[in-house]
Design goal:
Elements lengths: L5 E10 L2 E11 L4 E5 L6 H8 L7 E6 L7 H6 E4 L11 H12 L5 H7 L15 H13 L5 E5 L7 H16 L3 E5 L3 H7 L2 E6 L2 E6 L1 H8 L3 E7 L3 H8 L2 E3 L3 E6 L4 H9 L5 E7 L3 H9 L5
Parallel strand pairs: 3-7, 3-8, 5-6, 6-7
Antiparallel strand pairs: 1-2, 1-4, 8-9, 10-12, 10-13, 11-12
Pfam family, one: ABC_tran
Keywords: ATP-binding, Nucleotide-binding, Transport
GO molecular function: ATP binding; ATP hydrolysis activity
Length: 297
């Protein structure tokens, strides 16, 4: 098994006289779920198009299951779910997915796939009557065809309600458990924070961060927030541990990750004077803001 089923090295892409991807290197291993984050225009969609072999590149290399993008073997190994899926409105869900199965040479359980994505009650309805969320579900069923080695998902939860989003990530988890390398381009930071193994952040065509959430937190050095609720006298707690008074009943202190346990021991030593402690580490939103706005050297 290839260690990195998707391998991007030194990728450069120009649009006219403007460079839109600058020496981007990124890998995704079998079974790994990687979130690709970035503001509009950061280069996420351009990178995905390059991996799909839809656009030429000016520098670097891309390998998909040990094949060059656009080659038959690379296309067979890859599934793609665009943000705005589009199907023939006159076909039913069953007919559309059956067509995709025939084109891929796959003998698929079409009703079973549609049930898996929550479309069992609509498999014989025309797609023209589907909502955006239903079309997104149909696109996800297409991704599941052929047991892909690489899945590229561009804003996969677009148009889905909260329960459907949970169902989608459960399917993504199943894909990864089966050895599929999953790359998810998304703006839904809260979702990917809990459901991915690694975070890659792009800004102005550069890959500015690429690590686990823990690793990103350690490198950024952002502070953890400790809010101490006093049993009676918040002033006494503030005098002993410092920090800022909050709402008259709590004290808030900020500390770096390496200071957290020291501060917690100081708080614990105050005994019954402390009623409760809330610990808020840096969120992905904080980390995204930190790395996306970082000056590019």
């Amino acid at each position: 098994m290839t260690d990195n089923i998707l391998k991007i090295e030194g990728l450069c892409k120009d649009r006219g006289k403007t460079r839109v991807l600058h020496d981007v290197s990124l890998t995704v291993s079998p079974g790994e779920r990687v979130a690709l984050l970035g503001h509009n225009g950061a280069g996420k969609s351009t990178l995905i198009k390059a991996v799909l072999g839809l656009i030429p590149i000016e520098g670097g290399s891309i390998s998909v299951a040990s094949h060059r993008p656009g080659k038959g073997a690379a296309r067979s190994a890859t599934a793609f779910l665009p943000e705005a899926v589009s199907f023939h409105p006159a076909l039913t869900g069953r007919e559309q997915l059956s067509l995709f199965a025939r084109l891929s040479g796959e003998r698929a359980d079409v009703p079973g796939l549609l049930e898996r994505v929550g479309l069992a009650d609509a498999l014989d309805r025309r797609i023209g009557t589907y909502s955006k969320g239903m079309r997104q579900r149909l696109g996800l069923a297409q991704v599941l065809l052929g047991h892909p080695k690489v899945a590229l998902l561009d804003e996969p939860t677009s148009g889905l309600d909260p329960i459907s989003r949970q169902d989608l990530y459960a399917i993504i988890d199943e894909l990864a458990a089966g050895g599929c390398a999953v790359l998810i381009a998304s703006h839904a930071l809260t979702e990917v924070e809990a459901r991915t193994d690694r975070i890659a952040i792009m800004s102005k065509g550069h890959l500015v961060a690429n690590d686990t959430l823990t690793g990103l937190s350690a490198k950024a050095g952002l502070k953890t927030r400790l809010r101490v609720r006093a049993a009676q006298d918040a002033d006494a707690i503030a005098a002993q541990i410092g920090g800022s008074r909050i709402n008259g009943a709590s004290v808030e202190i900020l500390c770096t990750p390496d200071q957290k346990m020291i501060e917690l021991r100081r708080i614990a030593a105050m005994g019954d004077a402390v009623a409760d402690v809330d610990i808020t580490p840096p969120r992905l939103e904080d980390l995204y803001r930190h790395y996306a706005r970082e000056e590019l050297k």
